[in-house]
Amino acid sequence: MRYPPYQWTGLLWRANPDPRQGLKGIVMVITAALVGLVVGHLLEVLLDRFYADTPPASPLVRCSACRSPIRPPHLIPLLGYLLYRGRCPDCDQWLPIRVLLLPPASALVFALAALTSDEWAPTILGGLFSTIFLALATTDMERRLIPNRIVYPAILLAMAVSWAWPDRGVGQIFAGGGLAFAIMLIVYIVSLGRFGFGDVKMATLMGFTAGFPVMVVGLFFTAISAGIVAAVLLLTRVMQRGQYIPYGPFIALGAIISLLWGHSIID
Ligand SMILES: [Zn+2]
Fold it and tell me: How many distinct structural domains can be found in the chain?
């Protein structure tokens, strides 16, 4: 029998009535958040390494403006950013906002994965892939790019660990990946250049992590959120008709919702 630390009661999380199970759950959520903080920080420090114009073996840099080598405080999540008040200590340029946002966001998705699953395997997998989606959303916003150096290894990793999810089978994972690729390929062809092929690959990763039928929930939330934001931007004239919007953040939103809550939504 499973003892979830918190129970989903429709609108609110309610603590498990058994105090010992409740405490165990809280410890797990905090541990998951710390793991997430480190994973998010690692990915963030390495992020510009994943752009195709960076040699894979070059030294770690903190600042893309002066490319000075990383200083020790920057090796600890958030410390370097706070210590130097968000600027590069060498050239005084502002550091990218992802340095501040990605590690806590990753801590949050790991904590939510622990809250929603109460088992370690789906917490680590859900948290890790959610963090990868956050990183892809970041690269799409920074450079309008969904780097192959992240998305291809992530798809291979998702295939390799497809057996490890307790609530979805290998068949569902591969069906989800195949279906997401097929749907997005049609969207890509029909959209005549509004969608990039990077979006197709990123949505395929969603399929290989959420599996079928949960990835349908993810694609649904992607389409709805992108539609709402595009409508608001057009109505407020922030954006002109035909202007490019990065879809990566919306695919990431749909993927994270489907990874963390997909099964509850489908049930
Ligand atoms: Zn600098």
Answer: 2
85 and 196 inside one domain? no
Residues 91, 2 share a domain: yes
Tell me the pTM.
Answer: 0.90
- Residues 196-210: tens digit of each pLDDT: 899 999 999 999 999
The CA 73 to ligand 1 mean position distance, Å, reads: 15
Domain end position, chosen among 99, 118, 137: 118
Q: Are residues 183 and 251 both part of a single domain?
A: yes
Q: Per-residue pLDDT tens for 153-172?
A: 999 999 999 999 998 999 99
55 and 165 together in one domain? no
State the distance from the centre of ligand 1 to the C-alpha of 89, rounded, in angstroms: 7
Q: How far is CA 76 from CA 44, 92, 162, 205, in A?
A: 12, 20, 32, 29
CA of 83 to the centre of ligand 1 (A): 15
What pLDDT, on the 0 to 100 scale, is given for residue 83? 92
Taking the centre of ligand 1 as the mean of its atom positions, its distance from the CA of residue 77, in whole angstroms, is 18
Other CB atoms within 10 A of residue 3 CB: 14
Beta-bridge partners for 15: 6
- Return d(Cα 196, Cα 266) in angstroms, integer: 29
Residue range of the domain that includes 239? 148-267
